[in-house]
């Protein structure tokens, strides 16, 4: 995925907030090359990542949340299918994946207003994971679990086909420069992968505050044959998605925000 900028710890801002680069849904390798040389001396295709691992420093409260809440709410990455009932301690709740939750404020809000759904958040940025763990403890929440790993590998290996009721991708890094557009998370192969993990009738909800990326999202999602748009183009913001402080500031300055909600065909 891509790397958002990272917001202040009290706000679930879009990932590309230049003030504090903390909102990182998955992003990319430092090199732009398409191949890498393996130990056998042979060049192999390099997988382009949409995220950058940030070395941000966790606060003491976030570190305590790792120690006290991590054993209960962190799910280790494995190459095997996730046992949802065992992870969430209930068998039949709707299953929602969120990719790149930043500092977790939005995730915590949605989980609170939708207590009957189970939310699996995937994020590589350690302070963000610690911040969401802290929110889980203070809210408190029982319907959130976290995997700190590359989301593409999580989707490929831990989430079987037709296992999800919904997917959220909010404010992924737009990778503004044209030469970096290949790093954008929402490319046709990954959208097809996400669609394959949705149950019939399941939804994919994306949001961005970068118009050119919104236009690309609309094109890519619209071209996926197993998905259908729930709106003529962009959707009204669903009530469950909160408007963040960063988003409110942008709206006051006349910046746009675009939501896209597609459903898996039956």
Could you tell me the CATH topology label.
Rossmann fold
CATH architecture: 3-Layer(aba) Sandwich
Structural class: alpha/beta
Mean pLDDT, to the nearest integer, reads 83
User: What can be said about the biggest beta sheet?
Assistant: 7 strands, mixed
| Number of distinct beta strands | 9
Shape: globular
- Cross-sheet strand order for the largest sheet: 5-4-3-6-7-9-8
Number of domains: 1
Structure summary:
The protein contains eight helices and nine strands.
Question: Can you walk me through this structure?
Answer:
The chain is of the alpha/beta class and 266 residues long. The protein has a single domain (74-264), classed as Vaccinia Virus protein VP39 (Rossmann fold, 3-Layer(aba) Sandwich), CATH 3.40.50. Helices cover 30% and strands 18% of the residues. It contains 8 helices and 9 strands. The protein has helices at residues 60-73, 84-88, 105-113, 126-138, 151-158, 188-197, 211-223, 245-252; strands spanning 35-37, 43-45, 95-99, 118-122, 144-147, 164-170, 198-208, 227-229, 258-264. A 7-stranded mixed sheet has the order 5-4-3-6-7-9-8, sandwiched between helices. β3, α3 and β4 form a beta-alpha-beta unit. The protein is globular. The two termini are 27 Å apart.
Short key terms for the protein model shown above:
single chain; 266 residues; alpha/beta; Rossmann fold; seven-stranded mixed sheet; two-stranded antiparallel sheet; 8 helices; 9 strands; 30% helix; globular
